[in-house]
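Saturday, quiet lab. Running sequence design on the structure tokens for the scaffold JK sent over.
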């Protein structure tokens, strides 16, 4: 993955943002406070914006917290193919 690809901004749809916000809020007790607050702030927009690196961090944080139902659309953003 090139540096330019890593810095590309991805704007989620309103539906994706709402779904991710709901998931993130449900995991509050399982995520370290600094990680939780960082993404909570990003998800306050109606259409959240992330770089690939930020989406990867968010996804890995969810996985490490034990959340198993990571949305397919989120995983598709991270698929290099």
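Result came back. Writing it out in full:
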């Amino acid at each position: 993955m090139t540096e330019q690809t890593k810095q590309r901004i991805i704007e989620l749809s309103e539906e994706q943002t709402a779904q991710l916000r709901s998931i993130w809020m449900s995991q509050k007790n399982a995520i370290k406070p600094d990680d939780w607050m960082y993404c909570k702030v990003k998800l306050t927009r109606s259409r959240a914006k992330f770089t690939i690196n930020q989406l990867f961090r968010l996804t890995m944080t969810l996985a490490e917290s034990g959340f198993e139902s990571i949305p397919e659309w989120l995983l598709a953003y991270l698929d290099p193919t």
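Notes for JK: DSSP finds five helices and two strands in the chain. The beta strands are 9-11, 49-51. Ask whether to fix the surface positions before the next round.
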